[in-house]
Amino acid sequence: MVVSISLLILLVKCRNGIQHRKNCWQDGVSGTNCPIQAGWNWTYDFQVKDQIGSFFYFPSLSFQRAAGGYGGVIINNRDIIPLPFAVPDADVTLFITDWYTKSHKELRKDVERGTNLGIPDGILINGLGPFRFDEAIVPDGFPFLTINVEPGKTYRFRVHNVGISTSLNFRIQNHNLLLVETEGSYTVQQNYANMDIHVGQSFSFLVTMDQNASSDYYVVASPRFVNSSSWAKATGVAILHYSNSQGPASGPLPDPPNDFDTYFSMNQARSIRWNVSAGAARPNPQGSFKYGEITVTDFYVILNRPAELINGKWRTTLNGISYFTPSTPLKLAQQFNISGVYKLDFPNKLMNRPAKLDTSLINGTFKGFMEIIFQNNDTTVQNYHMDGYAFFVVGMDFGVWTENSRGTYNKWDGVARCTTQVFPGAWTAILISLDSAGIWNLRAENLDSWYLGQELYVSVVNPESDGSEAGLPDNAIYCGVLSSLQKDQAQRVRFSSSPSMSCSSTTILVLLLVAFGAFIG
């Protein structure tokens, strides 16, 4: 399927998990795309090849995700490839997020000053506040989400944590969550009473409406690893309403896991396994790619640290480097052989030197196999995402990673996904097959950590230059040292005009009217 997205904005939009095979020009981050100026339009044109699953898009610049602008992306199986479960009666897409009354610009200034974001003013489900489950906590008059269902039917709930920095526990009162897919991988099917969904992660559950509908039921998203009493107001509650329901939901919310039990959460994450016998984007089983038998060619231990002062400003680092965003996107600099924009010298471990600002890239080996260890020296859960690829989550544990830790790796059915959590004082190991040429973003999904510099790029160059990588788009926008190449667009957007949308089986055209700057990431 080929997808075209036209944007009328000063922004760039990133699609979390869409791989853009050999076409990082469509990735929608600062390393590949210039911002779309206010009133201009730009069309993303990409193929969703070799993928299925549940993903989302969002603005990737300047803390704008805190203001919204996100939405879902669903890639279905081809007709010739059956689902590994019965076709659900309907789909329900849910976006759960922490929310602040402050604007994204005010939040950005707080982060720049080194101020902790603090307790969010609420947890939203599809942009709506909580049902009034407790009159002492929730004021009257908040609009809330109602999910209408039919008894006996099974629904596929696609749940995305599109938030700023808060891990959320998702649960539906008196209903099991049968996990079937996460971020493009079909999983071993297991029932869960609840699921910890960390920032940037996406899950698909089958939920069967098998209760007697004596009342409506609570759908809950609540913060994890925090003091529940002080965060009580920050609980998202929607309503699951059976068509034959006999009354409104009442009573206490379904219990979450213990507030600070990171061991429960880690064991839950370890329990998520790849369904090695299911076909997905291709008819052959997922498990036919035997990642555990491939020799590692590139190895990195990437250690984060809490925000610190570098040159008088608060910054976050990976291996002692806080990413400096150049005015010229990395991919444009590579395309036009512009020197001095970036360096291919990102260290494979923390160096014994002061932290610094730099534009330092990992020099990846084309068709190599990379092992990355994320070591979290912060006091909160940090989440990391890689564009362009799905990686295999093969291990996680508390303490410091050592070479002996490889003995605990899951080398058979570790799930392939694009976003993974790293618990405080713990490590997570991933394996990546570098088979897609381009310059690919590796970043913290926690918006405060990302904004202050916890990101880098992986350069993967095909030395044979066989033409398989997509070339510079005809509609490329130029900026930085290449600004002189940019021509003014003949027709500016009038924001008072109405957008139009057309859709066919092969092409989707979406017009987004946004009056501020961003990227789609």
Shape: globular
Number of strands: 33
Biggest sheet, spatial arrangement of strands: 7-6-9-14-11-12
Mean of residue pLDDT values:
90
Structural class: mainly beta
Number of helices: 4
Q: Low-confidence spans: pLDDT under 50, at least 5 residues?
A: 4-10, 496-521
User: How would a crystallographer describe the biggest sheet?
Assistant: 6 strands, mixed
Q: Which percent range describes the beta-strand content?
A: 35-45%
Taking the alpha carbons of the first and last residues, their distance comes to 19 Å
Radius of gyration: 22 Å
Helical proportion, percent range: under 10%
Summarize the structure.
With 521 residues, this protein is mostly beta strands. It has helices spanning 104-112, 262-270, 330-335, 447-451, and strands spanning 2-8, 11-16, 41-47, 53-59, 71-75, 90-99, 122-125, 146-149, 154-161, 168-172, 177-182, 185-192, 195-197, 202-208, 217-223, 236-242, 298-310, 313-318, 321-323, 356-358, 362-365, 368-376, 382-386, 391-398, 416-417, 419-422, 426-434, 438-444, 455-461, 502-503, 508-509, 511-513, 518-520.
Verbal overview:
The strands form eight sheets. A six-stranded mixed sheet has the order 7-6-9-14-11-12, with no helix packed on it. A six-stranded mixed sheet has the order 18-17-22-27-24-25. Strands 8-16-15-10-13 form a five-stranded mixed sheet. Strand 30 (502-503) and strand 31 (508-509) form a beta hairpin. Helix content is 6%, strand content 37%. The protein is mainly beta and 521 residues long. It contains four helices and 33 strands. The protein is globular, with a radius of gyration of 22 Å. It starts with a strand and ends with a strand.
